[in-house]
Amino acid sequence: MSGPGISVVICAYTEDRWEDILAAVSSVRAQSRPALETLLVVDHNETLRERLAKEYKDSSEGSVVRVLANAGPRGLSAGRNTGIAAARGEIVAFLDDDAVAERDWLRHFAGAYADERVMAVGGRTVPVWASGRRPDWFPEEFDWVVGCTYRGLPRGLVRVRNVLGGNASFRRSAFDAAGGFATGIGRDGDKRPLGCEETELCIRLSRARPDAVLLIDDRAVIHHRVPEIREHFRYFRTRTYAEGLSKALVARSVGAEKGLESERRYATRVLPAGAARGLRDALLARPGGAGRAGAIVAGVLTAAGGYVVGSVRARRGGTTFRVPEVEVAARE
Length: 332
Known about the structure:
The chain is an alpha/beta fold and 332 residues long. It contains 10 helices and 9 strands. Strand 1, helix 1 (18-29) and strand 2 (37-42) form a beta-alpha-beta unit. The two termini are 17 Å apart. The model has no long low-confidence stretch (mean pLDDT 90).
């Protein structure tokens, strides 16, 4: 195998996703460009950790699976930092525990790192709806609500401000330069679905390394399961509000100019175009057109409300987050 070794980190927290976790690991083992190792990081769930350790205790050379306990506070950011610290590869890739990667996922990631300036590479995440199809009212512009690539992101192999965390990779030296994922921003199990920890990290990385190149390659594809509960407007509203809260924390960390740079284009170009398409479809009596236009307006308003509340809390000191240094494992 030529090129950099890649460690894949999958963070898990609940036995409810047991079959999904096994499917995620299997998809990594089936890669056309083999991973150096798969690291399963379990977030403060000893029963799940023991069960996974037993499942993978006989992992063979070439398909090594290591099961670790989250060494930090509860939450996705600390789990990822635990994986980074234990990883042996020059590249660290992240895959959600309820997603499966296409066979050439790692091959496309590895190819981009031939350029030494490249510090991060993300991919395209496709939703797999529990109902079998996208709800008529659900706008593609808001697929980030369910952790997927949304309409408005550039296509192809392109330079971006930030990658999306559930389908991403970083050079190990990126964490030496910028530190790890900030705790206090991202998800914590089934609690309020906060996010944006990868956005904050990428902006911090670009500041620490002004020459850094961050890319998205939409050939690096994963398929992300969307459970039935997330197909409803109630979750949509909750998630967009939480995104506003998260964006306020990012702006506090890196400043509003950079923290909201991409969001301004999204809000002023992508969303108005999406609403116009929805209204056009409604006039043409196509299913869901009015619902999609309404969801876009509702999503903007709830995200804006979350941002205002989050900004007030941040000014009052009601929210805290920490950027940890990550001590990476020595290479063998």
